[in-house]
Specification:
About 10% of the residues lie in helices and about 35% in strands. By secondary structure, it is mostly beta strands. The chain has a domain of about 190 residues: Exo-inulinase, domain 1 (Jelly Rolls). Strands 3, 5, 6, 8, 11, 14, 15 and 17 form an 8-stranded antiparallel sheet that branches. A 5-stranded antiparallel sheet has the order 4-7-16-9-10, with no helix packed on it. A 3-stranded antiparallel sheet has the order 1-19-20.
């Protein structure tokens, strides 16, 4: 019985070895042919991440590092203390202008909470000075869903409420795609935003309906391809720290020939039609 079992086991091992060999030959045959797009891409530029995920990478434009508000118009009217900027008199507008970009900003609602609804820890980050993602104490105060923290104001609520308690720090990491306009001023493609609030996805490539006013429906109006960011003064002492932006630019590959398949054994190349 043992011998039979051993013999059966030996046959099984032999079969498995043959099968593995056939699979290896098949894999090698498949790898002999390689698809190539025919596009010559520039080598991606090396970017050094910040020592911590929230710190600016090497190619970022730093708008606030805890020292001063010199990167902002009207920044002199906001208070800087303990490495934090506190909303002062009037909105601030970045001196640098941006189009498609990645934005990192950290903010903290007042503690203890002050006010109710839209009067509780209210500010706002305006992409291109026009399109607002709401900043609000949505932890301790109730308001309308498309006006709470993480909302595109008056257009969509966030997917979830990812707020931390008042006095703790919230983080927005934003990927912004600017709107495109034709020469005649008509809209070619809308703006889109992806936003992560405290590590939680709250806006997933949401396409904006236009600007974000309080008193009328959203609408698009042709504007420059690059415009400043702005942060709102809504009369609440919201605090900010660690604000930086990265320009997002197309890779700009150049087609040097049609896409093709190369046989890596024979060197033969066949264009893909």
């Amino acid at each position: 019985m043992i011998r039979a079992t051993q013999a059966g086991w030996t046959k099984q091992v032999g079969f498995q070895a043959i099968l593995s060999g056939l699979m290896a030959i098949s894999a090698a045959s498949a790898q002999a042919e390689e698809y190539l797009s025919g596009i010559e891409w520039p080598k991606p530029v090396m970017v050094t991440p910040g020592a911590e995920n929230s710190l600016p990478p090497s190619d970022a434009v730093v708008l606030f590092d805890g020292k001063d508000m010199s990167a902002w118009q009207n920044g002199e009217n906001w208070l800087v203390e303990n490495g934090e900027a506190v909303v002062g008199k009037g909105q601030i507008v970045s001196k640098a202008k941006f189009g498609d970009c990645q934005v990192h900003i950290e903010w903290s609602a007042p503690n203890p909470p002050q006010g109710e609804g839209q009067g509780c820890g209210n500010s706002g980050l305006f992409l291109m000075g026009t399109y607002e993602i709401q900043i609000l104490d949505s932890y301790s105060s109730k308001t309308y869903p498309d006006g709470q923290a993480g909302a595109i104001y008056k257009q969509t609520p966030p997917l979830v409420n990812a707020m931390r308690p008042p006095g703790e720090w919230n983080t927005y990491d934003i990927i912004w795609t600017r709107p495109r306009f034709a020469a005649d001023g008509s809209l070619e493609s809308p703006a889109a935003i992806t936003a992560i609030h405290n590590g939680v996805l709250v806006l997933n490539h949401f396409e904006l309906l236009g600007d974000t006013p309080y008193h009328r429906p959203a609408a698009y109006k042709k504007h420059a391809d690059r415009l400043p960011l702005s942060i709102q003064d809504h009369g609440n002492p919201v605090r900010f720290r660690n604000i930086w932006v990265r320009d997002l630019k197309p890779r700009g590959g150049k087609r040097v020939r049609p896409a093709f398949i190369r046989n890596n054994q024979t060197g033969k190349e066949t264009d893909v039609k």
